[in-house]
């Protein structure tokens, strides 16, 4: 009898082991394939090949378009894939939770993938960073758009109201509510530092950054949020609750606490209940993936009367070029990439940028905080291009991408329009007005002309072009 029970329990254990091992194998292969392909699918595969192909052959096929714009589309997973992904995610989450606890005590992260690190689950936004770019799995967008919200807290720091929203699986997103209609231009008498932050600018900046091939803005999507059910009823912030009220026309409003525009006059109101906003995927917690904040050498003075040094000294770049970390590697051209992005969307508010500490100085710049972009379409701000004008340096890959987006068939405004139409809020109204889209084409011409002027002023192309493609024949 006892022998029989023992034999039965041994068979049972054996079966359990087989089931466990096969499940494990399945999960490992799925996770590996997902984490591998996702970055390929979403990370501008083979940008050099795509661009060189189209520049050489202006009538390039749709494969080039994939690199320029349509790769902003999320990959739709079919039901089976979704099921397996869910299964993999659940087991993976449990495993990663245990691992991350061990790793976070070491204050580091795994460097399993060549030149990259992973993973910190933030909801479904499995995060993956390479030395050169940010990468999120495809389910991330869906999480931001439709996962139930379980918490809303005001984010401390910063000047304007923004909320950290939580998902049931402890994932988080940064919510910036709509403060201004899409067609409204910033009042000309407002200084750049007191301009409103725009939710559609955060969304559009994410798309533009991708189209430019940078991938340095964390994913941002638009979402309609119920002011009462998804903020007031779920927040544990009692001070925030006291700022809710019903407007004279019956809309649910609140204003929160912050140093700019947190008052009844600038209340954030639903229509009557729902309000548009941008949801940005949160990067891993600082304890897991520490970041360093850098003051931009071309930071504005944030004063009504003072000028910054770079505005007074035309040789300013000479000193920056010899100052670490701008004296070596790609830091200077990365900063110039950022100034091109900012000029295109007219963002004057780039006071700081951040990097992941783990990658040291040889890494990309994270382009956070784009809410003050796309304020005025009728005006271009040449001073934003100062790093390019003063240093006359640019990555070859950036120049090629700009050339591509200036071609009739891949016009920047067309690619942006197509890309932005993928956002859930595009059904309410286009994320950028046509005036803003055509401003992009106009500003692109200015950037290209500036680079050509630099080439004329310098004897050798290599003085201007930072060759990050190597074997690509002349730009
Ligand atoms: N997606 C994100 N993931 C993680 N941290 C983020 C994210 N977005 C912003 N942050 C952090 O929060 C800080 C404030 O965010 P943001 O700059 O967007 O707000 P802000 O109110 O415009 O700030 P400021 O007034 O200082 O410009 C950022 O500097 C960054 O450190
Ligand atoms: Mn800001």
TrEMBL record:
<feature type="binding site">
    <location>
        <position position="197"/>
    </location>
    <ligand>
        <name>Mn(2+)</name>
    </ligand>
</feature>
<keyword id="KW-0472">Membrane</keyword>
<comment type="similarity">
    <text>Belongs to the FAM20 family.</text>
</comment>
<feature type="binding site">
    <location>
        <position position="369"/>
    </location>
    <ligand>
        <name>ATP</name>
    </ligand>
</feature>
<feature type="domain" description="FAM20 C-terminal">
    <location>
        <begin position="244"/>
        <end position="462"/>
    </location>
</feature>
<feature type="binding site">
    <location>
        <position position="176"/>
    </location>
    <ligand>
        <name>ATP</name>
    </ligand>
</feature>
<keyword id="KW-1015">Disulfide bond</keyword>
<dbReference type="GO" id="GO:0016773">
    <property type="term" value="F:phosphotransferase activity, alcohol group as acceptor"/>
</dbReference>
<keyword id="KW-0547">Nucleotide-binding</keyword>
<keyword id="KW-0325">Glycoprotein</keyword>
<feature type="binding site">
    <location>
        <position position="197"/>
    </location>
    <ligand>
        <name>ATP</name>
    </ligand>
</feature>
<dbReference type="GO" id="GO:0005794">
    <property type="term" value="C:Golgi apparatus"/>
</dbReference>
<feature type="binding site">
    <location>
        <position position="354"/>
    </location>
    <ligand>
        <name>ATP</name>
    </ligand>
</feature>
<feature type="transmembrane region" description="Helical">
    <location>
        <begin position="12"/>
        <end position="34"/>
    </location>
</feature>
<dbReference type="InterPro" id="IPR009581">
    <property type="entry name" value="FAM20_C"/>
</dbReference>
<dbReference type="InterPro" id="IPR024869">
    <property type="entry name" value="FAM20"/>
</dbReference>
<keyword id="KW-0464">Manganese</keyword>
<keyword id="KW-1133">Transmembrane helix</keyword>
<feature type="active site">
    <location>
        <position position="349"/>
    </location>
</feature>
<feature type="binding site">
    <location>
        <position position="160"/>
    </location>
    <ligand>
        <name>ATP</name>
    </ligand>
</feature>
<keyword id="KW-0479">Metal-binding</keyword>
<keyword id="KW-0333">Golgi apparatus</keyword>
<dbReference type="GO" id="GO:0070166">
    <property type="term" value="P:enamel mineralization"/>
</dbReference>
<feature type="binding site">
    <location>
        <position position="369"/>
    </location>
    <ligand>
        <name>Mn(2+)</name>
    </ligand>
</feature>
<dbReference type="GO" id="GO:0046872">
    <property type="term" value="F:metal ion binding"/>
</dbReference>
<keyword id="KW-0067">ATP-binding</keyword>
<dbReference type="GO" id="GO:0005524">
    <property type="term" value="F:ATP binding"/>
</dbReference>
<dbReference type="Pfam" id="PF06702">
    <property type="entry name" value="Fam20C"/>
</dbReference>
<protein>
    <submittedName>
        <fullName>Extracellular serine/threonine protein kinase FAM20C-like</fullName>
    </submittedName>
</protein>
<feature type="binding site">
    <location>
        <begin position="280"/>
        <end position="283"/>
    </location>
    <ligand>
        <name>ATP</name>
    </ligand>
</feature>
<keyword id="KW-0812">Transmembrane</keyword>
């Amino acid at each position: 009898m006892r022998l029989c029970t023992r034999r039965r329990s041994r068979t049972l254990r054996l079966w359990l082991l087989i089931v466990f091992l096969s499940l494990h194998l399945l999960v490992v292969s799925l996770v590996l394939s997902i984490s591998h392909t996702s970055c390929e699918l979403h990370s501008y595969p083979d940008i050099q090949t795509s661009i060189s192909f189209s520049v050489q052959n202006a009538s390039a096929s749709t494969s080039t378009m994939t690199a320029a714009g349509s790769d902003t589309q999320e990959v739709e997973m079919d039901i089976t894939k979704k099921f397996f992904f869910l299964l993999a995610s659940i087991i993976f989450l449990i495993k990663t939770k245990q691992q991350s606890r061990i790793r976070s005590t070491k204050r580091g992260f795994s460097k399993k993938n060549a030149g990259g690190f992973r993973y910190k689950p933030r909801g479904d936004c499995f995060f993956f960073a390479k030395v050169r770019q940010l990468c999120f799995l495809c389910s991330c967008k869906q999480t931001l758009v439709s996962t139930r919200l379980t918490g809303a807290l005001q984010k401390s720091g910063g000047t304007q109201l923004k909320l950290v929203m939580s998902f049931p699986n402890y994932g988080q997103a940064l919510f910036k509510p709509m403060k201004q209609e899409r067609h409204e231009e910033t009042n000309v008498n407002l200084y750049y530092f007191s301009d409103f932050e725009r939710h559609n600018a955060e969304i559009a900046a994410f798309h533009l950054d991708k189209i430019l091939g940078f991938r340095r803005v964390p994913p941002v999507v638009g979402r309609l949020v119920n002011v009462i059910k998804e903020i007031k009823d779920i927040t544990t912030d009692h001070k925030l609750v006291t700022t809710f009220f019903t407007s004279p026309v019956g809309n649910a409003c609140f204003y929160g606490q912050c140093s700019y525009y947190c008052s009844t006059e600038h209340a954030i109101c639903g229509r009557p209940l729902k309000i548009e906003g941008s949801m940005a995927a949160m990067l891993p917690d600082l304890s897991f993936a520490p970041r360093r904040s850098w003051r931009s050498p071309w930071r504005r003075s944030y004063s009504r009367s003072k000028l910054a040094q770079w505005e007074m000294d035309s040789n300013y770049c000479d000193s920056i070029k010899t100052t670490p970390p701008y004296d070596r590697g790609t830091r200077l051209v990365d900063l110039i990439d950022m100034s091109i992005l900012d000029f295109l969307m007219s963002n004057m508010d780039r006071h700081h940028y951040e990097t992941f500490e783990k990658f040291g100085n040889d890494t990309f710049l994270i382009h956070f905080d784009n809410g003050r972009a796309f304020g005025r379409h009728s005006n271009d701000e040449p001073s934003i291009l100062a790093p390019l004008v003063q240093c006359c340096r640019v990555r070859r890959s950036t120049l090629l991408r700009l050339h591509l987006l200036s071609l009739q068939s891949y016009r920047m405004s067309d690619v942006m329009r197509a890309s932005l139409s993928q956002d859930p809020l595009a059904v309410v109204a286009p994320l950028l007005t046509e005036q803003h889209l055509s401003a992009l084409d106009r500003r692109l011409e200015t950037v290209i002309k500036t680079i050509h002027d630099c080439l004329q002023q310098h004897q050798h192309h290599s003085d201007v072009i930072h060759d990050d493609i190597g074997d690509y024949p002349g730009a």
